[in-house]
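Students often ask why we bother encoding 3D structure as a string. The short answer is that it lets us treat folding as translation between two languages. Here is a chain of 270 residues written in the first language.
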Amino acid sequence: MAQIKVAVNGALGRMGMTVLGAVRANPDTVPVGGVDVKAKSSSLQLPDGSGSVPLSNDLTEIIKSAHPDVVVDFTNGEGALTTVRKAAPAGVRVVSGSTGVTMQALDEIGALAAQHRVGVISASNFALGAVLLMHLARIAARYFNYADVVETHHETKIDSPSGTALSIARAIVEGHGGPLTVNVPEKETLAGTRGGTHEGVSVHSARMPGRLARHEVTFGTQGQTLVLIHDTINRDCYMPGVMLAVKHVMTLQGLVVGLDNVMGLSKPKP
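And here it is in the second language, the structure alphabet:
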């Protein structure tokens, strides 16, 4: 079987370089190009020092010269849509880990994928453990009325709570079948101590150096609690999910949203 040829959009970023390294290390894939708006040279050294790939600030140029089978996109919501607009008409599949993709953009991405009969996978989190935590939280929520989500990230993360924390909270409400019960203190001696709430799920954020990402869910009921924790140690944790998606997208025609659908995690019946 021929190796899957992969180009990376956002190649000069930390995630982009990590993806290039993972693609180079996998026997089923080969890196053939990089794209980045900050590109100032025509080539990019691979992270393992084994060689270089063409580099451009124009995805169309890389598609024409390198002929990738798949473009892996780690840019932003607008960048993801632009990537699909350029890749799909050329018959190139897309795996996007960009966050901030709107529903309107997803609708257009889905239409482009269907029109040109190419696979597109869009996922906000490629950490297999985080996706499994969300799946397990959805299952457990059916049996509990109280739930807290605590997420901790590095001190430079600009948004709170994390998108993953919000997705977990939504999964809990969905699994529970509606809003949960939330404690409302009679007296709050420090404003904001109870965090934010999403339909009865309390969500808390912490920011500090020394940690990349942690998501912790605590369910409570009479006489017991259930705690689910996922820790992200470094960006390598996303690579098994990215590589799974790169291989899976080769079998698709159309849009798949969420790594859970790539992993075959069906939603539990109510």
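Translate back mentally: Residues 4-122+236-263 form a domain with the Rossmann fold fold (CATH 3.40.50.720). Keep this in mind for the problem set.
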